[in-house]
Design brief:
The protein is of the alpha/beta class. Helices cover 42% and strands 18% of the residues. The chain folds into two domains: 252 residues, 3-Layer(aba) Sandwich (Aldehyde Dehydrogenase, Chain A, domain 1); 188 residues, Aldehyde Dehydrogenase, Chain A, domain 2 (3-Layer(aba) Sandwich), CATH 3.40.309. It is built from 14 helices and 18 strands. The strands form four sheets. A seven-stranded mixed β-sheet has the order 12-13-14-11-10-15-16, with helices on both faces. Helix 4 links the parallel strand 5 and strand 6. The chain binds NADP nicotinamide-adenine-dinucleotide phosphate (NAP). NADP nicotinamide-adenine-dinucleotide phosphate binds next to helix 7.
Length: 457
């Protein structure tokens, strides 16, 4: 894939970049290793000061960075601005809490026949981060902020369609005061990832992206005995039960499906509705989806912009065509408009059967699948009936049923009567083919730390 900024709203290439040579990459890995020696010797207070400075720069740069992201991958300008603000919040969160999260953790010294025993959390070294384009700033930041606060250094291989955002991130941490090499961007294609990961100076990798990319990176890391965190795809269920506030659920459902132009790993993708409220929900949901404003992502009034890539739209169209050819019903949308760029309208598809690809596969665009179920047990069976386990939503006013959903949904997140999102305070990640390991919270910062057991006689 060429390393270039292509405006998804028009399909025009705006800027191209040459991939870095093997030698340039080697130098950057060397700089990351040197910076690690310096960074690990700094105090939490020093790193917090730099991390807070990064947050302040993000605040000041909001308008320009947001416009750059919109130009690179088509998200609406208002959601791009919200993403920048979220990144600043993430920086401040780890600036404030990293020291407590990584403080020595006392153990029962008497039980292990020591005078003192504890766990010490120490950074590991340069970590490779392979990141996707869909939240180009936040996905990278949710790795970078905890990693740098722990004293690790970062090497970012960003998606090839967001090179300007990738370069901005390197510049941001340098301007904030972090040593040169503490956070470097590698402008490389995915074929060059193996060379970086097999470099002995790189100690671990994190990947957010597709299952195929995750498997490939984990395979290399496995051979190298290097730790990985994988944040992969999802096909999140959104279950609506008879006691739910159906109109509110339908309102949130449209946002949950179409946020980020339908390209969020934790977007609700499969809408599983009890037959008692199915007709009411389906009508309200299709009405809400049809009412979303599709248009110029730079316009503050727009709800849904174009898809990020031509291939991404082709993938969505293929899944819809497969379902329709086998008898699924299109309640709204379903046809691309006749214009330049990678547009696709909010779409609701009903009457899905297990033979259709949409039953199992992730649709990475503004297309919702509607499923009718007759009981709680059937809702759980359909909800858990994919290979994914990222986020999940359930709508019910019944406290006992809420508790059952919390226990029974196979997912890394369960949101009851609300839309799945991420917060620095809550762990984020998946189970099954959605990956392993956690980002955010105290768990995220510990993923790339050595939990060193200390025993003193
Ligand atoms: P993708 O094709 O896997 O790309 C993600 C990153 O991996 C890019 O930097 C890409 O580089 C790189 N890559 C691709 N194939 C690779 C390989 N074989 N070896 C090494 N690196 C490789 O994913 P995408 O299509 O852009 O993103 C959509 C997917 O990501 C969806 O499934 C979505 O659900 C998932 N996602 C998950 C999360 C989460 O937190 N769980 C968050 C966001 C997205 P190039 O651009 O150079 O190909």
């Amino acid at each position: 894939m060429a390393i270039a900024t292509t405006d998804p709203a028009t399909g025009r290439v705006l800027k191209t970049f040459d991939a870095m040579s093997t030698e340039q990459v080697r130098q950057r890995v060397g700089a990351a290793a040197e910076a690690f020696a310096a960074l690990r010797a700094t105090t939490f207070a020093q790193r917090s000061e730099w991390m807070r400075a990064a947050a302040d720069i993000l605040d000041a740069d909001t308008g320009d960075v947001a416009a750059m992201m919109t130009a690179e991958m088509g998200k609406t300008l208002k959601s791009a601005k919200a993403e920048v603000a979220k990144c600043a919040t993430g920086c401040r969160y780890y600036a404030e809490h990293a020291e407590a999260f990584l403080a020595d953790e006392p153990a029962d010294a008497a039980a292990v026949k020591a005078s003192r025993a504890y766990t010490r959390w120490q950074p590991l070294g340069p970590v490779l981060a392979v990141m996707p384009w869909n939240f180009p700033l936040w996905q990278a930041m949710r790795f970078a902020a905890p990693a740098l606060m722990a004293g690790n250094t970062g090497l970012l291989k960003h998606a090839s369609n967001v090179p300007q955002t990738a370069l901005y991130l390197e510049d941001l941490f340098r301007r904030a005061g972090f040593p040169d090499g503490a956070f470097s961007t590698l402008l490389i294609g995915s074929a060059q990832v193996e060379g970086v990961l097999t470099d002995p100076r790189v100690v671990a990798a994190t990947l957010t992206g597709s299952e195929a990319a995750g498997r490939s990176v984990a395979e290399i890391a496995g051979r190298e005995v290097k730790k990985t965190v994988l944040e992969l795809g999802g096909s999140d269920p959104f279950v609506v039960m008879p006691s739910a506030d159906v109109r509110r659920a339908a309102e949130v459902a449209a946002i949950a499906r179409c946020q980020n132009n339908g390209q969020s790993c934790i977007a609700a993708k499969r809408f599983i509705v009890h037959s008692d409220v199915y007709d009411e929900f389906a009508a309200a949901f299709a009405e809400r989806m049809s009412a979303l404003v599709v248009g110029d992502p730079m316009d503050e009034a727009t709800d849904v912009g174009p898809l990020a890539t031509e291939q991404g739209r082709a993938d969505v169209e293929e899944l819809v065509a497969d379902a329709v050819s086998q008898g699924a019903e299109v309640l709204c949308g379903g046809q691309r408009p006749d214009r330049d760029g990678w547009w696709y309208p909010p779409t609701v598809i009903a009457g899905l059967t297990p033979q259709m690809r949409m039953w199992q596969e992730e649709v990475f665009g503004p297309v919702a699948g509607l499923f009718r179920v007759g009981s709680y047990a059937e809702a759980i069976e359909v909800a858990n009936g994919t290979s994914f386990g990222l986020g999940s939503n359930a709508w019910t006013a019944d406290p006992a049923e809420q508790e059952s959903f919390v226990n029974d949904l196979e997912a890394g997140q369960v949101f009851i009567n609300g839309m799945t999102t991420s917060y620095p305070e809550l762990p984020f990640g998946g189970i099954k083919n959605s990956g392993y390991g956690r980002e955010l919270s105290s768990l995220g910062i510990r993923e790339f730390c050595n939990a060193k057991a200390v025993w003193i006689a």
